[in-house]
Write a structure and sequence with these properties.
- The structure is a single chain.
- The chain is an alpha+beta fold.
- It has one domain: Alpha-Beta Plaits (2-Layer Sandwich).
- Helix content is 35%, strand content 19%.
- It is built from 3 helices and 4 strands; from the N terminus they run ββαββαα.
């Protein structure tokens, strides 16, 4: 799917929206191929190519997919990200956010109000 303006929103608590740069030569066939390739990944809800901004916007579930896996899928499609210090910094930061979110998703439910489970002695 190719659009000029992305109005994608996050629907679930564990979904994230990430932007990935595409090389400048504009090609409608390449854009369609990239969005179809990304849409086949498990956990991807939507992948939209913004032609005017030379980027693809991907909304995915962090419990099923990580930032690095999306980068690898782009590289397999023939669109690797630049190997600059900025892209490495940004990639490490976004991968850290995905990992933290995934860990938070599997934490036990927090205690409620002034009645934490396991701290009150059982009443007879």
């Amino acid at each position: 799917m190719t659009r000029d303006q992305s109005t994608l929103g996050i629907q679930g608590a564990w979904e994230v929206k990430r932007h990935f740069a595409l090389p400048p030569p504009r090609d409608a066939q390449r854009d369609r191929r990239v969005s179809e390739h990304l849409a086949q990944l498990p956990g991807v809800r939507t992948a939209v190519v913004e032609s005017s901004r030379h980027r693809v916007v991907v909304v995915y579930d962090i419990n099923r997919l990580s930032y690095r896996q999306v980068l690898e899928a782009l590289a397999q499609a023939g669109l690797p990200t630049p190997d600059t210090w900025w892209w490495r910094l940004k990639g490490n930061w976004l991968e850290y956010l995905d990992t933290t979110g995934r860990e938070n998703a599997h934490l036990p439910e927090p205690s409620c109000c002034s009645h934490p489970k396991g701290l009150d002695p059982p009443k007879r």
